[in-house]
Design brief:
By secondary structure, this protein is of the alpha/beta class. The protein has two domains: 4-207, DHBP synthase; 230-319, Threonylcarbamoyl-AMP synthase, C-terminal domain (Rossmann fold, 3-Layer(aba) Sandwich). It is 31% helix and 17% strand. The chain has eleven helices and 15 strands. The strands form two sheets. An eleven-stranded mixed beta sheet has the order 1-8-2-3-7-4-6-5-9-10-11, sandwiched between helices. β13, α9 (257-260) and β14 (265-268) form a beta-alpha-beta unit.
Length: 321
């Protein structure tokens, strides 16, 4: 079996309705979708991804009204964030309704909800009368896909249909926000910057994105986003790096180009220093560096602000281990 790659939204909806796996474009990354109310279909996601079953899934629908019906309770902050940022790169973790299978929530009493901001995702979600469970469409632990081709390369033999919506505009997974003990908490840094969340709410939020043993959100596992090769983070403090001619260097803006202009393989996430452009390029470049003939990849951290926080998070994890 090899997946059909197509732009046909109606066929994608029909496959989902039949309980099949369909890769779906979103503004963040491609998702591996299945009917969230069909446990057999959801089980297929875990098999296709080799995903540990402790890792819960996000469910998607086309509007706040359609997705919020799967929660029992909406805290004020959650409502404000939904009003401000849906559709968009935000996931809200809220108390789940019984109709959502335990397999989706990995036995938790909460469920992760999202309304993607992509015309093709919107169109297919409009056509189905169930929520679509969709993790990023990559094998567990690897870099998330931002084109239909990325999905086909890694999962093409394991799924039926890839809905092609072009390259993902944001390029980083959604920011995940939950409300443990009533405290608004970021579980995963992502495509919606922290600053935007705090500005919307008018107060600071808690951040709990690291845990190596019992991850709240497995995007929190330290080693994740693996490009399958040694990656080293450069800091501005160290004056000297033993960069070999065959190594690759991944830069941002004008740093560290000046120091390493002699390195043979220099790539730039955004020459103009634009964080949104860097985010959109990140996963394709990690893939390219992972499959390229470079013994090691040196990366420089980005400014720790806006989307730079989520990009740095992915770079650190890619470099871990
Ligand atoms: O942008 C995105 O969020 C993409 C697109 C496809 O929507 N999806 C995505 O899914 O990144 P995934 O499965 O790769 O990451 C979802 C994260 C996981 O780290 C999971 O642990 C967390 O969401 N999550 C899901 N349900 C949760 C829950 N009830 N409590 C805490 N974290 C949860
Ligand atoms: Mg993922």
């Amino acid at each position: 079996m090899s997946a059909t790659i197509s732009t046909d939204v109606t066929t994608a909806a029909r496959y989902l309705t039949k309980g099949k796996l369909v890769a779906i474009p979103t503004e963040t990354v491609y998702g591996l979708g299945a009917n969230a109310l069909n446990e057999t279909a959801v089980a297929g996601i875990f098999t296709a991804k080799n995903r540990p079953s402790f890792d819960p899934l996000i469910i998607h629908q086309s509007s706040a009204v359609r997705v919020l019906k799967y929660t029992k309770f909406i805290p004020d902050d959650a409502q404000k964030l939904a009003d401000a940022f849906w559709p968009g790169p935000l996931t809200l973790v809220l108390p789940k309704q019984e109709v959502i299978p335990d397999l989706v929530s990995a036995g938790l009493s909460t469920v992760a909800l999202r309304v993607p901001d992509h015309p093709v995702a919107q169109a297919v979600l409009e056509l189905v009368d169930f929520p679509v469970a969709a993790p990023s469409a990559n094998p567990f632990g690897f870099v998330s896909p931002t084109t239909a081709r990325h999905v086909a390369d890694q999962l093409g033999e394991r799924i039926d249909f890839i809905l092609d919506g072009g390259p993902c505009r944001v390029g980083l997974e959604s920011t995940i926000v939950g409300f443990p003990a009533g405290i608004t908490t970021v579980f995963r840094k992502g495509g919606l910057p922290l600053e935007a969340i705090e500005e919307c709410l008018g107060h600071p939020v808690a951040i709990r994105t690291h845990s190596s043993s019992q991850p709240e959100a497995p995007g929190m596992l330290t080693k994740h986003y693996s490009p399958g090769k040694e990656m080293l983070i450069m800091t501005k403090i160290a004056a000297f790096y033993p960069i070999q001619p065959a190594d690759a260097v991944l830069c941002f803006g004008n740093w560290p180009l000046a120091d390493h202009a002699s390195a043979a393989h220099v790539f730039n996430l955004s020459k103009s220093g634009d964080l949104a452009e860097a985010a959109a390029n990140l996963f394709s470049m990690l893939r390219m560096l992972g499959s390229g003939d470079y013994p090691r990849v040196w990366v420089c951290p980005l400014p720790e602000e806006g989307l730079g926080r989520a990009i740095n998070d992915r770079l650190w994890r890619a470099a871990a281990g």
